[in-house]
Amino acid sequence: MKILICNVGSTSLKYQLFDFSRGERVLASGGAERVGQAVGRFYAKDHTSGDELSESAAFPTHREAIERMLAQLLGGALAALSELSCVGFKVVHARGVSGVQVLTEDVLQKMAAFNAVAPAHNPPYIAAIRQFRELLPDTPLIGAFETAFHQTMPPEASLYSIPIELSRKYDIRRYGFHGASHEYMSAWVADALDRTDLKLVSCHLGGSGSLCAVKNGQSIDTSMGISLQCGVMQNNRCGDIDPYVIFYLAEECGMSLPEIKTMLQTKSGFLGMSGVSGDLRDVEQAAEAGNDDALNAILHYAYSIKKYIGSYAAAMGGLDAIVFGGGIGRHSPTIRALALSGLEFLGVRLDGEKNRHAVTGSDISIEDAPVRVIVLDTNEEVVVARKAKELLEADNA
Q1: What is the pTM of this model?
Q2: Residue pLDDT, tens place only, 161-194
Q3: Is CB count within 10 Å lower at the N or C end of the chain?
């Protein structure tokens, strides 16, 4: 069984081809960058031969990127497109739909119904899925929704304090995202520690980031809500703010709602607070050079992570482990150290040397610390591939 997993961004396409006939072998991977721009890049790797390529290319739309990907696969890992059992997607959000779904037109319409709360994610995914349908009309298209892992959250964690009739009528609740990453990391730590009863905080920290309280393998709370806009701040999204900031800017400061929406979505977070960049690496360099705004952005980010970890420890009645993944979680010892500083009362005791030289799978706690701290490369694609495989096998049973 060969399953192609595609991750669609607003200006990118990434893929991995899995072969489940012998374990979970990756046959090929690659992607396209700067879709919609005059000059982009296509890159690919054949994991059997080790051959790699990187070339300039123009992709006016995702369709051209998809066609280039399929041509690359046919030149090596696939003898024919009919070898594909399905194409799987890490889809984000849909009204009234979660879990693993065959991506019918009905499901796509339910995704479109939540375009307003996932504007950077749903529209490009919907467009790309329709293009896949045209190019591969006989291949099942399967989506694993990012919200699925968080369906176990209890009402006290998932409901908002607005009139309940509005919540019910319009499906307004805390959904949560990055489910495949939180699922992968929490399962990895449970296996590594040989425990099924863990009280774990999973930290998926990158350009987009969220935290999740995982108790006994299930999500009981998470930092994102009906949208990906809340929680810890992100590269250019604001994260948690008082909603009356919006009314103040509109009613007293003369900003229009579209201007405020654009500001919160694209000009806030690290970019907005630092005035330098949405990339933490640039912000860290600016802070080291004496830029106080950049330093405050870093401190704010780490402080918000610390607050979530502490609140989740309270919600779970204790804490056994913390796992850091995502680009920032995996590669920034500075953020890990700042976020965990002051949590010694919970049993968190970081080994500075281990933290500075962490590789994937590292335990960066001191030897006798009650709480284990793990640094991990997450793997959302393999989670989506496994779920797609399970759905295909269930349908064929």
Answers
A1: 0.94
A2: 999 999 999 999 999 999 999 999 999 999 999 9
A3: C
